[in-house]
Amino acid sequence: MSYAIVVRRLASLCCPLLLVPLVLLVVSCDNDRSRVDMEKVVPEIGGNQSINALPPLHIAVAAMISPETTRQYYEELLRLVAGRMERRAVFWQRRTYAEVNDLVMNRQVDAAFVCAGPYVKGHERFGMELLAVPVVHGAKVYYSYIIANRNSSYASLHDLRGKKFAFTDPDSNTGCLVPTYMLAKRGETPKSFFREHFFSNSHDNSIKAVADGQADGAAVDSLIWEFMNTIDPTLTSHTKIIEKSSPYGMPPIVVHPAMDAASKKRLKQILLTLHEHKDSAALLAKLQIDRFAEGDDKAYDTVREMSSWLEQKKGD
């Protein structure tokens, strides 16, 4: 079965959102076209005159999964949230996590779904502010999974020495920072440890790379791997988890600290009460999200500690 068919099947089974963050953020099957569409075009959700007369609510989604699939997963959620604010949703997407952070910093968007790593960088750089975090199966944490092909003999990260490895994005917590930290603790770097390594630009592309034998191993977001494994294990069934990291603060929804206070308060209230309404509760259930909850900046201290330790290591 081709990957395009798998993506269509995923889209038919689910509604938008955090396909995480989740599953909520592969380069698409047509990589060049994806870059043009996502960097030059800002499509709007909704088409009739009454909707277009409403003030816009600009929301960005980090590319944790492929561009087309991200839009499919998020569109319904963004439309619902914007509608409850009596605004129209405008969907923004960029190829890298850093580009999404720039959108928030420059106040080109009102809110964004980002990864834990970019949140830490944005908070340090310009005070990026937590608005809410998803609660999945009762937890506000997620993990980095080190995966390998199911038919391989690899049983831990140690077994991937001299092999080909897939990272996701240079700013990804689970897809880059965590495995780099794991190696550094063993006195290694990706360059010294792996024969070859590359960036896939998204977690589902890394899963595909391992499933198809394009990579011997990869580091991926546990939320995305588990979600895909539940709804359609076509790809994940060809992989296995050989190592699991410590828990980290959940990928959050963020805003610029200077966002209008009333709008910020209203958006947060809507997110925190989505599970209380029948229509949005059903949507969240399909996405395996219990609800959205208050975030705590301290939950990301472990990410900061890893980053700080690695920076100090470079200077030694």
Automatic annotation (TrEMBL):
PANTHER family cross-referenced by the UniProt entry: PHOSPHONATES-BINDING PERIPLASMIC PROTEIN
Protein name: Phosphate/phosphite/phosphonate ABC transporter substrate-binding protein
Pfam families, A to Z: Phosphonate-bd
Gene: phnD
Entry keyword annotation includes Signal: yes
Presence of keyword Signal: yes
Lineage of producing organism: Bacteria, Pseudomonadati, Thermodesulfobacteriota, Desulfuromonadia, Geobacterales
Family the entry assigns: Belongs to the phosphate/phosphite/phosphonate binding protein family.
Record key words, sorted: Signal
